[in-house]
Amino acid sequence: MSHHDHPSHVHHHFENEVQQFDSDKMGMWLFLVTEIMIFAGLFCAYIIYRTHNPEIFHYGHQFLDKQLGALNTLILLTSSLTMAWGVRAAQLSQKKTLLTMLALTMLCAFGFLIIKYFEYSAKIHHGTLYGDRYVWQTDEHGGEHGASGDEAHSMAEAVADAQAVSEDAMAAEAAGGTSTMNASMAVPSSQFALAPEGPSGFDLNAPEEQKEAAAHSFPQPAKAHLFFSIYFIMTGLHGIHVVIGIICIFTIFVFSARGAYNSTYYTPVDLVGLYWHLVDLIWIYLFPLLYLVD
Amino acid sequence: MSNKSHHHEPGHPTVGHVSPLPQLFMVFGALVALTILTVALSGKLPGASGMMIAMGIATVKALLVALYFMHLRYDRPFNGYIFLAGILFVAVFFGFASLDTATYRRDILPYEADKLGAAGGSEEAMYEEPRKAYQNAHQGKSLHTSEAGEEQPAAESEDAGAAAH
Fold first, then answer.
1. Among A166, B87, B95, B145, which is disulfide-ready with B139 (CB 3.0 to 4.6 Å)?
2. Confidence label for A160 from pLDDT (cuts 50, 70 and 90)
3. How close are the terminal C-alpha atoms of chain B, in Å?
């Protein structure tokens, strides 16, 4: 191929733009597979802990807000649509549409993170964060959630209640007593606020006091923090990917505004699009696994 | 394959596949419908079938995203092979990691088999017994530590004592 046939956006080590495009895309797919491998480790942890401790997952998922999870799924799906539309706009040199679609994608991504923020802060507040499980042991040292006098009092009451309830059931302790319980588990389940979609069997239209009572009667399995650790790490790594996605989309947004992409050269838009769709694809599995445990 | 097509319409790319807008909207509509379906079905199916159906729906959604939004259907087949090879090795990984899970079944069977029968086949009732056992264990421990502290590691009794006072 003679030199004047070589467009400026094609690097000299490529035969032509088709070869360059195919190489770029293949490299991106290889990278996406490594991303899948990263998440596979976490999915594997999920599978193993769930097969060993099904009751923990059954218990833990009921404190996740199914409606917020579904809303976040819809937001991510919408962002995937706008991203795919943006790639199409770049391919057709529709600069205005491209900028609009990239902006909408970022908007959805921020919406996703904001909802995630509310979910996280509620969960951290309720002490389901892994590290927070141990605050009960270090209360006297003035942890952030350190027990005030009232809280300590209610803890004492809870323990007294528990003693009363368990007296005629002490025989069962022999079975459960060998499990890896520790004192940090001594958080009564009433410490958790329930998601609007309550544990199965709850009457959602029941008066508040009744719901409270039902929540109190819902026992917490040992090692319940396992579920919340897996929840935080899996959704946290996914959230980091959302943040990286926003940075990438913002970068191509700036370049698009300068007119860097058109039908002859749009590879970065395409590759960022692939990345963003992978983020969506992983959430497609995270949502039913964490929020819809049956 | 559009990669190889050499028609140079003005404003049309020389490489890659341009998705028609109606197709993008249809895929999006299907994804939203499947999401609503999976939420509607959750908690309504017995036993393990619920999770299997939820995973099936998720896989259909993932395929839609990969084939249409990620253009795999119109892409070089090699990219699809890379993707499938990745999935294959993930399956090998999960498979080998799960090999010994049955070893621990005996800890789970007591309430998955016995309790299911004893509880008249209701899943809710099936989990009732292990819940009670766990709760009793936890309460029993609090009782011990606050009264005598016998058979308890020092750190634990200290903590339970602090909580109770």
1. A166
2. very low
3. 75
